[in-house]
Amino acid sequence: MRALDGTIVVASHNAGKLRELAELMAPFGIEARSAKDFGLPEPEETGTTFEENAYIKAFAAAKTTGLTALSDDSGLCVDALDGAPGVYTANWAERPDGTRDFMMAMEKTEKALSEKGAVTPADRTGRFVAVICLCYPDGEAEYFRGEAEGTLVWPPRGTDGFGYDPVFLPLGHERTFGEMSASEKHGWKPGHETALSHRARAFQAFARAKLGAA
Ligand code: IMP
After folding, report:
1. pTM of the model
2. Could you say which of 5, 37, 72, 73 is catalytic?
3. Ligand 1 pocket, residue 156 CB under 6 Å
């Protein structure tokens, strides 16, 4: 496993993800610069797995900047929908004019669930998945995966977070991700046992492997 030093480019244009990754990195004193700082374009995500899409983003940023890059590819996998929207989670929010509308995406998910007759919490299980890819300019990559189990609720609850947070009730909790503060959603600081969110879990695996976190 290669050593990590200096500056990392975070290969994402998604404001919610950038904010969460910056919050998670802050205690480690890494200089995290965003893809936007370098004016990097958003590569097309043509993969069929979270790992493939994470690699496309991280490699594009590492190759262009000559720096180590970190990307996050994530999504919501609903069991009653055979894992959809999965790698197409962001696409479900896309409007014809290219803007994203997550209320519309949550409604689409709810419509698909009600068409399946999925009414009880047991019928509405799923998970958020995040794959962090760390990629070097020569193309070598390492992957760190995190998952958060939960159920889909309707109507949406809470205004914190981003994306599908207001409809995701993490297992063992009474409030949705949209009703949680950032630190509660991450559920992890260095030295704590287990993170809560998929992104914090993936980041925890990354921080333990690469940043010497406990
Ligand atoms: P992508 O990784 O850029 O393909 O986009 C993943 C999509 O999944 C995001 O646009 C969000 O809508 C959704 N998503 C990923 N992580 C979260 C999360 O922590 N909360 C809510 N939605 C999320």
Report:
1. 0.94
2. 73
3. no
